[in-house]
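Can anyone check this?
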Amino acid sequence: MRDLGGHYYTYASCVLPAAERAGMQPVLAMHRDFRDLPALPPSWQSHAVFRNKSYSQRYIETGSATSGFSSWWARTRSKWRARERSRLAASFAEDCATLFSQVTLAAGDHVFFASTSEIDLEGLAIFLQSAPERYREIHWHLQLHLGIFEGRDPDYAQQRGRREFMREIFLHALKRVPSHRIHLYCTTRELTAQYEYLDVAPFYTLPYPVHPLFLLPSAPKSSSDSVRIACLGHSRREKGFRELPIVVRRLWNDYLSKGRAQLVMQTRRRDLRRALDSTVADLGAHSATPPVVYAPFPLDLERYAELVRSSDIGLLLYDSTRYYSRCSGVLLEMLSAGVPVIVPGGCWLSEQIHDENQRHLRDIAERGTALKQIGDNSLTWQGQRTTNGSAISFTDRAASCEFDLAPGARSLLLGFRWLEPSTRGTYAQLDLEQLDAQGAQLTNFAAIVGPGSDPSAVYSLFHLHENAQRVRLKWRNAWDDGTISVDSVECRLYAEHYPAGSVGLTAANMDQSGELLGDVLLHIEHYRKRSAAFAGRCTEYFNADQIVAQLLGAESAAQPLAESLPKRFDLSA
């Protein structure tokens, strides 16, 4: 933590007061560059000691070339990275020694490294190896934020080089401190699964905390107010902000030009501002309400929380593969403030709203009056598939079927039972092609669906074009070539244009953002009401008291690290 901006300070501002409420004395250690000590609460002990940041992704080895110059370069790069890792680990160990010469620890105390890497673990192990004997009675908690593998769970087995590289680092570090009470955590269940795959020690998932400032009530909003569509947080490449000009064009005629909606962009990047300003200038005249406004980055916590609460829709154009296992504080802040969101499908972000959206769609299936229902027996499937009774199986090659629509149908609710696989990380892509009376394609819209917490009843809702007479439904595995099997497929057609979600919507690709925003804008009161109700349930889990309770609860399950290491690991070597 270098300053009061960003999520590091927010995290500390959540967890340390929770520790105080639990009867602990809070101590905060941060980067040497931190200059805002007077702004911190006087009850905190604060120490600016660390000289490096915690990111280490660039040092993960993925394998090496086998011949010629490439082989020489790979060996040279690997040696340089090894030296750099050793340097950073030694630096971390020295900074720990500096910190704990200033902070006296006693048996039963807890030290929580809230954002760490495998290099920090190495450094801590080096420090503890020569630390006083009493430090074996301290609880050392390390939380990892960064992934090991690329892609999703089905891709991990093919990345043996990454696994062995990281596994060796963890085993080498943990070997140094077999008698210490080390507890390892990740910020999401998906990330925890990656680290468990190393088979070196138990890993647990800690909830990410949302600050109470995001829970304060916001000013009432009327249907005549301009709807604020917010893109907030650090504008890194994987957050997809370059897609925003497409969104602006899609919403221009009906919303942005008329002042019915406004895009709020938080960035300090001039290239992004120029791209948006150029798009607005090209599109022409608009109302007195600016179509696009900019908020500074970073903002202090109070102003940032106010910006989130004043938003009506959160637009998170993130790369779904990069965020498959990665936590987003911005998303949790939006949901906790009662703001509906647009997020990519097939990743941690979409999983946060999946169950709530499924409840909404299940309610339509149970209470809505269908114009027509089309079941398994009425569907004829073509393409890559096998059958097992009534089951439909498909891989990355699509299986498809076609059927006629009922006159006046405006919504199609697809329901099915997910049979396999039951492992995480597999998603189906459903493409709905809508055809007119002559068989010409009117639209093609894709949805990403997974089994969720209730694979026995999975739903997806599509809006229908007014001129559509027939549809073609295609199924395929969205990201790998494994087989997906489903059954009990049923399509229900409704005359009503139902909202497609409850607390937000998921995009198969971010080109859909404009269309998805159109759905939320059309049904804005529905999404506001459902998101406000969901906010309370969200904050029951994503709060600092849960974190502190889990950390302190580690005492009851405490055991020397040696008891949880793999049996084949030689502690005496």
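Reply from J.R.: I decoded it. The radius of gyration is 26 Å.
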